[in-house]
Specification:
Length: about 190
């Protein structure tokens, strides 16, 4: 099946998501994901879930909504209010793969799960680093992890200093050492 992802339009003056969705459906798209912002907005401002709901109501194919989904209760509310068949999680998953268990748990049981512990987050960061190194090589892995580590460590005590320490490092071994030491200090 062929699916597509669209935004609400180029800018507020040219919002055309309903028209584009109808054309995609007529052309044979099996499903559609709608990001609730215009291209001009990029990732600023709030996602317009009323506009996403209008797209979902305008076509017969499944529509997934995307934008500002960062926890289970928000996912449940957006699904309920929009009439979407599903949701797509974007930036909230960067450095936080635990968001999926949180959302699934809430949708299944209606109960918010405990956030990942500091230990889990650091362990997952290291796993992510090592998998990237296996796949793309050490140099690329370390460079890419500079973006992801922000999410993994967000909100942890002393995280800013640890990130500053990590940024100039160029080997997986050096990252391992810094993160293992940090994990031990958080205890």
């Amino acid at each position: 099946p062929i699916t597509a992802k669209i935004r609400l339009g180029w800018d507020d003056a040219s919002r055309n998501a309903v028209e584009v969705a109808r054309r995609l459906e007529a052309a044979g798209a099996a499903a559609l994901t709608v990001h609730g912002r215009t291209r001009e907005q990029m990732y600023h401002g709030k996602a317009d879930w009323e506009a996403i709901a209008a797209v979902a109501a305008a076509v017969a194919i499944p529509v997934w909504g995307n934008g500002d989904i960062d926890d289970g209760p928000t996912a449940a509310r957006r699904l309920r209010e929009s009439g979407c068949a599903g949701i797509a999680v974007g930036r909230a998953a960067q450095g936080n793969p635990f968001i999926f268990r949180e959302i699934v748990g809430y949708l299944r049981d209606g109960v918010e799960t405990q956030p990942a512990s500091a230990e889990e987050r650091i362990d997952m960061c290291l796993r992510h680093l090592h998998l990237l190194a296996e796949d793309k090589g050490e140099a690329v892995a370390v460079r890419e992890m500079r973006t992801h580590v922000v999410g993994y460590l967000r909100g942890l005590f002393g995280a800013t200093e640890v990130r500053r320490t990590l940024m100039p490092l160029v080997t997986v071994a050096a990252w391992d050492e810094v993160l293992a030491d940090y994990r031990a200090r958080l205890g």
